[in-house]
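Field reference: sequence -> structure
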Amino acid sequence: MLALIAVLGTGVLGLPSLVEWQGERMLRDSGWPGARVDVVRMDLSGTDIDIWNDSARERRIGRIELAYSFAAGIGGRLDLDMPLSGLMPDGIEAKDAALRTSGTIRSEDGRWSYVPDGCVTLTAAGAAAGPVKVSEPKSLCLQAVPGKGFLDYSLAEGTTLAFAVKPAPLRLTVRGMPVAGRFPAMVVDAALAATGAPTGLDVAWRQGTISLPRQAVVGEGLSGTASFDPAKGRPLTADYAIATIRHDRPEPLVAPLRAKGHAEGDPLAAVRFDTRLEDAAGTVAVAISGEQDMAAGAGSAEVRMPPVRFPPDSPGLTGLFPLLGEWVDSATGTFGVDGSFAWGEGSGKGSASILIEDAAIVAGGVTAQGINAVLTADSLAPLRLPPGQILSVALMDVGLPLTNAVVDFGIAADRLSVARAEWQWAGGFVRAVPFDVGPGDFEPGGEERTIELEATGIDLQKLLSVAAVDGLSATGTLGGRLPVRIGPDSVTVADGKLETTGPGTIRYDPEAPPSFLEGDPGSSTDMLLQALTDFRYESIELEVNGTAGGEMAIGFAIRGSNPDFYDGYPVALNLNVDGALDTILRRGITTYRIPEAVRDRIQEFQAQDK
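Structure field:
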């Protein structure tokens, strides 16, 4: 418009009809084919010009009032109420778009300038550009920046603009996904050649807010700067930050994070970006690096969280991911992530490797320590861990003191499928019958789920150590089945059955029997001690019961005899022993070694950081 004013401003030297013809030609070239220009007044003191939207002159879209003075030069006023729909670049639609402004015009040394009285107001009932549809802001206020010219033009140097944009409500959709928030306060510096081609652009923004309602994600405190220089190989550079990113739920998936990043490239081709996410304490840092194909609307990124240790006395992983608190009471140890994902047509489902090193988890009464693994996901949305994931566990309390576990599993369709789970217990092995579980299996008020464990080669002497009774020894092995019942709030072993695989011995000959076993000669207590000094059993049946986090109780039904007791007369004994599982577990961890296959995977993951 200043270029038009510059031409019309010389109208005092020509005829009104020439000014009208020249003005209408320039407006047609700018996208107003029906615009009309009327010279209302033209004399030596100045010129008044009306600009109309069409030949019917039903709507005046502008008025220019110029005054000429040998002392002050050319100056005046500009009033615009101008539709912009026909001026939009290809691919951009803006319904009922308009620009409204009033301000002062001045010409000095061949350079024209415009200073608005207040806001230059841009309005539209809606806008669309490809997959992006904007419903708000419906109005933007552009203001002059103190110390800078709002709009300057000269035929030799082209146009420069400097303006500030006030914050405004933000509401739009991107490929159908709703986005809301607050359009940030902005300062824009732009330069265009006389031909209208951009030669430079600098933008700074602050105090923005963005919200993804479907994902319940909110970003607050958006700020940054961006520059565009078409003379450079990578014309666009940007630095950006988000003060707080939070999951807007009563029980959020992740704790609040902050982000900072850099991007550069060609906005019409490809843009590279590097972003760093951190938690509030700076303990966890996630690096995201990728590229966006601007034309195709597709891109990809790599994600890396170097191994981070959460010590036992810290909030642990549940502090970073509060939603885990619904299933896990605590999770500590070292964790890391290395993954990639993509977006756009045919982009795939992403992948990741997850490091778990020397982790400890307490969940629903179950305690597990010394957890080690590198898990591999071949799909992130939906999450899928293919079968063959190997996880080792030093010790686990599921109502039994299980140690040195190896678990072979996979995750698909929100279900955990365990093909093999094997533990050591009391010198033998406990193996789980293959099973699968899902989140819906343990809803509050739901039924318990039972997982069958098969026990083989259990050493009777080591099993009796749960009672920690001095002078008690035994020989023989046992096997059987141990049902583990998993409910919403507890894990128990109920009515487990073990029996000996053959005959053996039980001997109890303490130097000083405890007071509760002391008895007069011939008493039942005295007879029990005599029978156990060298008891040769034919069979032993055990009933095992235990609660994770509590105690384990073992009931013995023993059949056999002592050759020195009543000439070997057959005896049936029923005994009960119990012990605290936490004490048994602490004894079991001292001999644990990470399996070689798991150790090699952990070393490979850690080597990526060197």
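Note: The mean pLDDT is 86.
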